[in-house]
Design brief:
This protein has 11 helices and 2 strands. The chain is mainly α. It has a two-stranded antiparallel sheet.
Length: about 400
């Protein structure tokens, strides 16, 4: 029945050649058939108001499996006038058809039978292979356009009855239109196959691109880790070789001592082992001290960089102050020239000149103080450099 409904809707929509609305009879019958398919085998849930049997629960799962469906679910919940779950389910089907995503959402839902088992019996249509077939047939609906207004519809109280007369044709009409129907069906099948193949190829390309990016990132990370590990291995090998050489040297010296004085074998061997432990401990202490000195050196370098930054800021401030001093001097010069040519404003100009001279003297004092602080900073930097060089030249 679902196959006939979908086929009849596609054929009539193509022959009509315009956007379908809510009053179109084949479209209304399609929604009734889909509603019966989704209701088939539904488990009955008990509530305070009695037993409830609605297909809105399975449709809500699509939002969790496909984030794109969240917009439809939110729109359904925001629609005014919908008070029952069955009304929300009918509105969801209409919005999914207008979005041309009904086939994708149904395929996503049918592929998760582990989640559908909570709502359907094992022998339900959605749990069988027929459900997957219907989801595949829904791909053909992507060729039609629908504009459905649901604000004025009473979706809660509609009674869905299948009109079988729409799918009964007389033999003469059927024999005349068989060839045309076959051509339309073949074209639609080819179009649907190409669209589905293109969609799968796009998804495969996106998945492969994501995998390639992830592999490149992991390859870069592994390469860096491998380089670090190789450096550690080389360092450890050098350390092992050095310890082996020291051990061989100590063993050789012990052998020489044992040949020279065979009676003192045990005592000399114990002394040699003790000496080896002491040298090993001494080497570890030296390495720790070296690490501490390296850390101090890094801290000194950091403090030197901070001092250099402070010196640069002070030099910039000195340059700005000198520029201001030059501007003040030029103003002073201009005012002095004007005071010579204007006898009436001599007193006022002299006062302005005195103020400017006071400011100039203050700025000069400030510049001298900054120069002194700069010299102190330079001395501190030299002291830090000398201390760092002493730490570096200290024998390890």
């Amino acid at each position: 029945m679902a196959k006939l409904s979908i086929k009849g809707l596609i054929e009539s929509a193509l022959n009509l050649g315009r956007t379908l609305d809510s009053d179109y009879a084949p479209l209304q019958q399609f929604f009734v058939v889909m509603e019966h398919c989704l209701k088939h085998g539904l488990k009955t849930k008990k509530t305070f108001l009695g037993q409830n049997k609605s297909f809105w629960g399975p449709l809500e799962l699509v939002e969790k499996l496909t984030p794109e469906a969240g917009e439809i679910t939110a729109s359904v919940k925001d629609l005014p006038g919908l008070k029952t779950p069955i009304g929300r389910g009918r509105a969801w089907l209409r919005l999914a058809l207008m979005q041309k995503k009904l086939s994708d959402y149904m395929k996503t839902l049918i592929n998760r039978k582990d989640l559908l088992s909570e709502f359907y019996e094992p022998n339900a249509l959605m749990m069988e292979e027929e459900g997957a077939v219907i989801a595949g047939l829904l791909v053909g609906l992507n060729v039609i356009d629908a504009n459905l207004c649901m604000k004025g519809e009473d979706l809660d109280s509609q009674v869905g009855v299948i009109d079988f007369s729409m799918y009964l044709k007389d033999g003469g009409h059927t024999s005349k239109s068989t060839e045309g129907d076959g051509q339309i069906t073949a074209i639609l099948d080819q179009k649907n196959y190409v669209e589905e193949l293109n969609r799968h190829l796009s998804a495969s390309v996106n998945n492969l691109q994501a995998k390639v990016d992830a592999l490149e990132k992991s390859n870069t990370k592994l390469t860096e880790e491998l380089a670090v590990a190789n450096n550690r291995i080389i360092t450890m090998q050098e350390e092992v070789e050095r310890v082996k050489e020291e051990s061989c040297y100590l063993l050789e010296s012990n052998r020489k001592v044992s040949k020279a004085d065979g009676s003192a074998d045990g005592h000399v061997l114990g002394d040699a082992r003790k000496q080896l432990k002491e040298e090993t401990q001494l080497r570890l202490d030296v390495e720790k001290e070296l690490e501490v000195q390296i850390g101090m050196k890094q801290e000194m370098e950091l403090s030197m960089k901070m001092l250099e930054k402070d010196i640069c800021e002070k030099q910039d401030a000195l340059v700005a102050l000198r520029q201001q001093l030059d501007d003040l001097r030029s103003l002073n010069h201009e005012f002095s020239l004007k005071s010579q040519t204007s006898d009436s404003a001599l007193k006022q100009k002299s006062e302005i000149i005195s103020r400017l001279e006071d400011k100039a003297s203050q700025l000069t004092a400030t510049i001298k103080q900054l120069e002194l602080s700069e010299m102190d900073m330079v001395k501190q930097a030299k002291n830090l450099n000398s201390a760092a060089s002493k730490l570096i030249q200290k024998p390890h």
